Recover the amino acids of this structure.
């Protein structure tokens, strides 16, 4: 028997924005009928208001939860509550900055054990590719993690910021990619070239321009070229994480034209913020790679519209306030990471609306796009057979962001004080309203 019917005059579906009646049974979508008044009955019915739009639950495939080990930075309870209030019904957790990191089966088991019974939304996991499991003859741990259902393997080409998650040399990257491709996995890469970073001016002080100069476009450009060549030679699927520099877009376009198995993401902060507007000492804006200039931002938007960038994800990478140097404003030693999980959709939609970009494009970039790239099945689209995950959004309602009111564990956000549009009014996971006090999310595995 149908357990839930949703009636929406506007719903974002793969066929576009249209009126639909959605039938749900046992947590899955059983029918998507044309028209908000299609004949359907159920034990429970939700009728959207005139100013509301039904979206698929958003998917964020780049979230640093940090539990266990650095739970004071962000834990599963707080992160998934924030996700739910932002319309995100599925996250994929990064393998750092937890202790232990998710670079071994043991690390994965520890992380899953602490996440279980805490999560308000569904959670999957990335594995990590580090020097210890990427040396010749030492890659069996990667295969074991793959068999346990991680969605792929994250690698850094420059220092990660934490000692327990080392970065790969070019030879180690090639070894890892060959091994991962051998069992059908994918490698996802933080692409900044350490040799370029070492040669750049040192970052110090309160001026954002000095920090930006320390992470030049060339660092991304050179590292992305290495990733492309590695994917070309091995045939292994490769994904570029958090693209900030538009200078690499021609490289990516040529690789795609050549059939290199390559996907690319960018983040809300690269699409909505700009270097020219970051005040001195405002270390809440520090992330790596950095937020770049106004003209660069325009090129990222164009690449999204052209399909060259596949998806938009948060790279939610929080820390405690003291690590952000909020007292001194020193960009050189502040932790690099933007906290934006709860407000990412609203931030992107606010800027998209200003640019005349339709809502359905934003939703695709933040739902089916990440689900496809990560390989999370049954998520990100309002289609028959998919999970009944939805966000009910008022796209014209304003939202004033106050960092201390967000569900993120620490009250630090680059969006503090921002006035956005697009309020998430209700989040539904497998046909049930998300209850922040009674978390009912599940732990996901690939396939």
């Amino acid at each position: 028997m149908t357990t839930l019917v949703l009636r929406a005059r506007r719903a974002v579906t793969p066929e576009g924005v249209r009126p639909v009646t959605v039938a749900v049974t046992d947590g899955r979508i059983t029918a998507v009928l044309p028209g908000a008044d299609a004949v359907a009955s159920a034990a429970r019915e939700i009728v959207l208001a005139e100013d509301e739009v039904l979206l698929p639950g958003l998917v964020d495939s780049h979230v640093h939860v940090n539990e266990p080990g650095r739970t004071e930075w962000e834990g599963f309870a707080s992160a998934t509550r924030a996700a739910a209030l932002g319309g995100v019904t599925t996250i994929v957790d990064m393998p750092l900055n937890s202790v232990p990191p998710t670079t071994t089966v043991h690390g994965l088991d520890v992380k899953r054990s602490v996440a279980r019974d805490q999560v308000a939304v569904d959670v999957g996991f990335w594995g990590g590719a580090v020097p210890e499991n990427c040396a010749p003859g030492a890659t069996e741990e990667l295969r074991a993690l793959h068999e346990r259902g991680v969605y792929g393997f994250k690698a850094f080409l420059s220092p990660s910021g934490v000692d327990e998650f080392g970065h790969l040399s070019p030879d180690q990257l090639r070894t890892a990619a060959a091994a991962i491709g051998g069992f059908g996995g994918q490698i996802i890469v933080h692409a900044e070239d350490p040799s370029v970073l070492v040669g750049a001016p040192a970052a110090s002080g309160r001026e954002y321009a000095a920090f930006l100069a320390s992470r030049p476009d060339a660092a991304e450009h050179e590292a992305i070229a290495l990733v492309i060549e590695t994917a070309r030679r091995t045939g292994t699927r490769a994904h570029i994480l958090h693209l900030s520099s538009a200078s690499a877009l021609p490289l990516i376009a040529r690789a795609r034209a050549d059939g290199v198995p390559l996907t690319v993401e960018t983040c809300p902060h690269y699409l909505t913020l700009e270097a020219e507007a970051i005040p001195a000492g405002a270390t809440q804006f520090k992330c790596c790679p950095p937020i770049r200039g106004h003209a660069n931002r325009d090129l990222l938007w164009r690449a999204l519209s052209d399909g060259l960038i596949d998806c938009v994800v948060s790279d939610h990478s929080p820390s405690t306030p003291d690590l952000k140097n909020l007292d001194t404003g020193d960009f050189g030693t502040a932790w690099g990471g933007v906290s934006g999980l709860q407000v990412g959709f609203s931030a992107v939609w606010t800027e998209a609306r200003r640019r005349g970009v339709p809502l359905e494009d934003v939703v695709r970039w933040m739902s089916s796009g990440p689900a496809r790239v990560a390989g999370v099945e049954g998520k990100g689209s309002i289609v028959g057979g998919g999970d009944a995950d939805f966000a009910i959004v008022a796209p014209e309602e304003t939202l004033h962001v106050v960092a201390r009111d967000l569900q993120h564990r620490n009250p630090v956000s680059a969006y503090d004080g921002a006035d956005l549009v697009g309020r998430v009014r209700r989040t539904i996971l497998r046909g049930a309203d998300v209850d922040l006090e009674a978390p009912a999310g599940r732990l996901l595995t690939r396939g």
Observations:
- The radius of gyration is 21 Å.
- The CA atoms of residues 133 and 139 lie 5 Å apart.
